[in-house]
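Long-time lurker. I teach an intro course on protein structure, and each term I like to show students one example going from raw sequence to a predicted 3D structure in token notation. This year I'd like something fresh instead of my usual example. Would anyone be willing to generate the tokens for the chain below so I can use it in lecture? Attribution to the forum is fine with me.
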Amino acid sequence: MSIPNEKSYDVVVAGTGAAGMSAALTAAQQGLKVLLLEKGHTTGGSSNYTEGLFAVDSYLQKDAGIHVSGTEVLKEEVAYSKYKADSRIWRKYVDASADNVQWLADQGVEYEGVQAMGDGEATWHIYKGMGNQVIHGALQPKAEEAGVEILTSTSAQGLHRNDNGEITAVDVKDEDSGKVVEIQTPAVVMATGGYLNNPKMMSELTAYDTDRLIPVSSGKGTGDGLQMAWDAGAKPSGTGTAMLFGGYLKDPDEPSFKFMGSQMNAAAGQQPLLWVNEKGERFVDESVVYNFSYAGNAMYTQNAVYSILDQGVIDRMATEGNFMGLGVYVKRGEKMTKLQDEIDAAVAADKPFIFKADTLEELAEKMGMPVAQLSQTIHQYNQSAEKGEDDLFGKDAAYLVPVNQGPYYGFKLNTGAFCTMGGLQVTPENEVLDNEGQVIPGLYAAGNDSSGLVGDTYGPNMPGTCVGYAFYSGRNAGQSIASYLKVAEETA
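-- Reply from a regular --
Happy to contribute to a lecture. Here you go:
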């Protein structure tokens, strides 16, 4: 039975991902008694699968001679959000980002280096062992050493406020037995990771066709923390945004995360080659894949999307390398030596996402497209490749690779998503606001439960900003709580 050892704590944190673990450890390092709750059987959530975090002016960038202006980052990200992001939050985040990298290193996190993603800036600090090692090899052991009580299969269920509106307690449930106890606390941090895995909330709060959306996450982002805070009077804010990452294959026989490292998945969904809709028409400059969130948006302009590869480009990617990878799972420029075998296995298994044909006419028929339209599309595309100019959408000639060598392969693409972003309006101190814009004393939100970082589209041009903000906002919440409790003690 997972019931807290004590009846009261200085801080209760819901969620053990990057935001929650950082909040709990920071609060404990400030001398506070902390209870950290995880509703699942294991800690870390989707943070276990992350690759690296954003920063400017870090010691790693300085060693590599990389300079990125923090103010220019702020201006670019706020403009990218159409000013839906909070400039104050970005200012604090950017200014603290180098210290964020250093703090993680001080806890035992090791880095592989700094790199860019797509055509973005070199702000992505890649850690060794991915997020799993960050959480389980560094932060969680440090938290336990600092006295944080960590309970798995245990969830927060409801918040209590007094007549002054202050947080006074939280209901805690043992998921196995169903027993609920009331735990006294003046401070609660919501770090539950958003609502990507709640179909009802996704349908109600976003404009995405969820039948075509493939969540690639821990599966625990069910919106519990958001709903709990809203029920307690918090203001809903910034919902509707998922971190899309372009084309992704859907295999009904396999969990979605297994395709992250698939060369076939990267070749089908992440290359700047040829996409068509269900009518066999091109609809976008396919080099949009270099901003994977834009690519996800573009796919949703059509009812269905297919990528088409011929044997020539498959052989080229095997011997010369791909055009675009998928994070650190499939590296950019990596030689796709497993690609043909993966494709052959999928065809042999008659997977529903792949179509193979000796001719383009046969391929169109197998994909259910008008033969004449697909033939015309590819004829026009090959003419553009021959003259090195895309008259239709202006794609760079480097990505105009002709489709003229059979066999031909068509891949039905869905849209991948890592997480949702937003839900609770927060101050730059990560304090949660109510419907009147007033701080709810003692309630904090961090990571993907908090809004203020993005507009309607995530910005991979500055890679690592989402998980970087999770670490930062968790730390920021922990520091804010220590100040809040100190003032409360002094004025008591």
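Some talking points for your students: The two ends are 36 Å apart (CA to CA). The chain has 14 helices and 18 strands.
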